[in-house]
Amino acid sequence: MNSPQFECKSLNETLGLNLIIKNEIENPVKCFKARGSEVFISKAKSGSYIICASAGNFGQAMAYSAKKKDINLTVYASHNANAVKIKKMKSLGANVILYGNDFDEAKVEAKRKAQEIKARFIEDSLDIESLEGAGTIGIELLKYPKKIDTVLVALGNGALLNGIARFLKHYNPEIKIIAVQAKGAPAMVNSWKTNTLIKHEKSETIADGVNVRIPIPQALKDMKGMVDDAILVEDESIIKGMKLLFKHLNLEVEPSAAVGIAAILENKSAFKNQNVATVICGGNITKEQKDKWLK
What is the strand order of the sheet 72-77 is part of? Predict the structure, then answer.
């Protein structure tokens, strides 16, 4: 809660706008997901058994919160999940089961197993607690001393976007909310834009946190009337955004955290001279990724 939010003069000059950085990586799990996991676990009984699925960050956050309340947590993740995130889940006491080639395959199996053994399955971006947690980011942005024109939010399954948008639009409908997703994983954006549920057989992007093939229908409904626009960005632009955050702020961020910067880089004229906020949603990056993209 009350994560840093600030501007960087040199980065603003480079991008040609007033960029407000909302830094969500200065916490024990280095991502925003702990906001929601704390809400989930506060309502759970000690000693209970919970199953969830994660691309990495949600699983870490759930493990961190569950450990404090002696809750038995099993996290399903894909065989291709970020190794740093998997290691952190295990170190925090979660039972981690690797299944399938991507997050959506792991989630389908996690749901099946939970139903089979009659355990509670927690679904990030569907269960309201994940939106409640993310929504606190919106509350904090509303306290920023400058008027914010636009907020660029990474769109994965939708918890971050819908939680923030719900609060911002309620208290200041004039703020423009823009969802940002990778071009290689456009299912959520395409579904929202066409008002139909679009699933993909495969998707490919370096940004694992927004790599969603099968949208959650409720998340798409939640976006209606809350989101003003959506942008799909190239992986190349995401890497450039990561480099800029490292160069100007010394922040080592994962790809999903830089999609807002990528959106600015690809649409500079659209945001010129505006007060634009973006959420740096995660910093769980592997050594190999650092060496490849930040050196």
Answer: 95-98, 72-77, 49-53, 120-122
